[in-house]
Amino acid sequence: MIDIKNLNLKQIRDGLQNKSFTALEITESYLGEIDKAKELNAFITVTSDKAIFMAKESDKRISRNESRDLEGIPISIKDLYCTKNIKTTAGSKILKNFIPTYESTITNNLWSDGCVMLGKLNNDEFAMGSSNETSYFGPSINPWKRKNEDTPLVPGGSSGGSAVAVSGSLSAATTATDTGGSIRQPASFTGTVGIKATYGRCSRWGVVAFASSLDQAGPITKTVVDSAIMLRSMAGFDSKDSTSIDLPVPNYETNINKNIKGKRIGIPKEYKIKGLDSDIENNWVDGINWLKSEGAEIIDISLPHTKYALPAYYIIAPAEASSNLARYDGVRYGERVHRKDLDQMYSDSRSDGFGEEVRRRILMGTYVLSAGYYDAYYLKAQKIRKLISNDFDNAFNIVDAILTPTTPTTAFNVGKKFDDPVTMYLNDMLTVPVNMAGLPAISIPSGFDKDGLPMGLQLIGKRFGEDNLFSLASVIEDCRGTFSNPTQWWIEK
Amino acid sequence: MPIDEKIVKKIATLSRITISENEITKLSAELNSIIKWVEQLNEIDTTEILPMTSSVNNTLYLRKDVVSDGNIVDDILLNAPMTEDGFFLVPKVIE
Known about the structure:
The structure holds 2 protein chains of 2 kinds.
Chain A: H1 9-17, H2 23-36, E1 43-46, H3 48-63, E2 74-78, H4 105-112, E3 116-121, H5 160-167, E4 173-178, H6 184-190, E5 193-196, E6 216-221, H7 224-234, E7 264-268, H8 278-293, E8 297-301, H9 306-324, H10 342-353, H11 356-369, H12 375-395, E9 401-405, H13 421-425, H14 432-437, E10 441-448, E11 454-461, H15 466-480, H16 489-492
Parallel strand pairs in A: 2-3, 2-4, 7-8, 7-9
Antiparallel strand pairs in A: 1-3, 4-6, 5-6, 5-10, 9-11, 10-11
Chain B: H1 5-15, H2 21-38, H3 73-77, E1 83-84, E2 87-88
Antiparallel strand pairs in B: 1-2
């Protein structure tokens, strides 16, 4: 067995090309680790047979010198991406037996580049949640624990399983999606790198829709260069997604460790929110100093409408969700509760198939879109959205990127009681504005708090400025020093 | 305007989601707490602002009008809870 715990995607790529190990060996090592990590509940489905088959195919190609860019690299897929002939649940009871007959564009890109699929990953139901606890399949558990404490912690959400599978060394990389922070917040909670691409950069075709004007894909990886390698394969124009943008995808890998001298970095004062953990605030200052030490110019900026992003999001996202989720009617696919009356069949199927948070958001979305309330809520939120986007546009006239913390706190306890839904929503305070404006943003592990839990810094870029983000992120990664793996308590105990 | 129990019932019907009588009070309280919180948006005067409909300036392009898919009835019906003779089955709607 290979010691995969200390390997990242780039090292695996090199190892496969140098023939230090075969794709089958590395795949079997990961399947072995996945088997030992059931307690982390990262996977909804493990596709062992398919993984072995794909790995053998990759080994044949490698031996014939016909390797593709990601040949033989074992990855896992958030269970929101449709995978042909493989169960795709979106973390919901209503799709617990759904078998797509088609493949999402992004996963298709990854398989075409030679990746090996290990399985499908746990997530909050329909990506609605910040702790992975709304999943019908139970919460995934954070590999990290507080020093001298055994309390299980959440990995964040909605891409909780995607973050856990990378942090716990159960996959070389994973795919994820981000509607309000669902890639960056779990990456921050688990000490991994997560990038949300610019809206339109990655195809949404075949990815189960939550809020279509905000949803965007991206990878979760151990390192910044791994993130660059994965995003290059995932991104690209797709005629099947009408919001996909026809722009060439750069080879992001060439941006790693590029000189950042003279880059202007904005520090928005509105992100110093009440409730920002003091360790995280200090870490933010570290981040500023790291970029400064490499020659970046630090500029204080203002994004005045920041505090309105979250409440506007909680109108727009549920509104779009209520519309998108209307398709689950117990007729064409999904679970049905059998009733004699058609309307009763619809209502009971949906009530039984959707969890509490999803139901609440559908009701909320239906309310803000209903006659008499549309202007007061939905239209108002879309106008606020414009102001938030204008704030960023103005800032990007004077800066190249913006540095903020990713989350106000580090990972919290599984089962932590929040007084009301709003308190839970506050988790996404620093990530949501980016989705509202459609910008790219990356979270980079940047240190540990007093309890030994990972913290993350967020870099926000101009539209289609992912290349620039990778340059800056690699500087933060270098300056922060080596980042340890979590203790594998799920094996050792 | 608060979301009273009558409104909760109405939006549940519009959403085609069955909710039990004992859930209504709780849902009404939760939805009200969210609505109360989002009402801070009214602090901003937006009369002169045009709503944002897309985050990227993108002109919708036209695809060639050709048949690129079809004859996949089995695929389409594969996940349906009930089918018969190539159709989806639903409870009787016309007596």
